[in-house]
Design goal:
Blueprint: H1 3-26, H2 34-45, H3 51-58, H4 62-74, E1 78-83, E2 86-94, H5 96-117, H6 122-151
Antiparallel strand pairs: 1-2
């Protein structure tokens, strides 16, 4: 398979994966929008995030990020907590309910992906696993210079 064909196949597979993941979540009655779910996932993986940091991650203005957090706080999924190192700074933390919601979403997505994998022969699954690990490693190496440029 030539490189352009491989890139196209990966693009098609990525779209299929997104479709499987979206379908797994859309069948669930969520109290949050996809954007709010993304905010919860970001906050869960970055514990010391403040509104400005969240705005940067989402590529939105801080006032938009703040309004998103206001809505999530109103439904009990986010809380604002004073940073113990600097009480003027306010961190955003997902609540226990948000963590439970994220866990349920992850579980449903995992089940949906596993159902697709179960339709593949075991040897192909192993080949896919090796390819995905290699792809992840190559992507991480490619992003290292980018990360260094952002911190400089």
């Amino acid at each position: 398979m030539e490189r352009p064909e491989l890139a196209a196949a990966i693009d098609v597979a990525a779209e299929a994966l997104v479709g499987v993941l979206d379908a797994a979540v859309s069948r669930q009655r969520l109290v949050v929008s996809p954007t709010q779910l993304r905010v919860l996932a970001l906050l869960s993986s970055r514990p010391a995030t403040n509104v400005n940091g969240l705005a940067e991650l989402l590529d939105v203005v801080p006032s938009s990020a703040s309004r998103l957090c206001d809505r999530l706080e109103a439904i009990g999924l986010v809380r604002r907590v004073a940073d113990p190192r600097d009480r003027r700074e306010v961190r955003l933390e997902p609540t226990t309910a948000a963590q439970a919601l994220l866990g349920e979403v992850r579980s449903r997505r995992h089940e949906a992906v596993q159902a697709v994998l179960d339709r593949m022969p075991p040897r192909v699954q192993q080949d896919l696993l090796r390819a995905l690990v290699a792809f992840g490693q190559a992507a991480a190496v490619a992003q290292q210079p980018e990360a260094a440029a952002h911190t400089a």
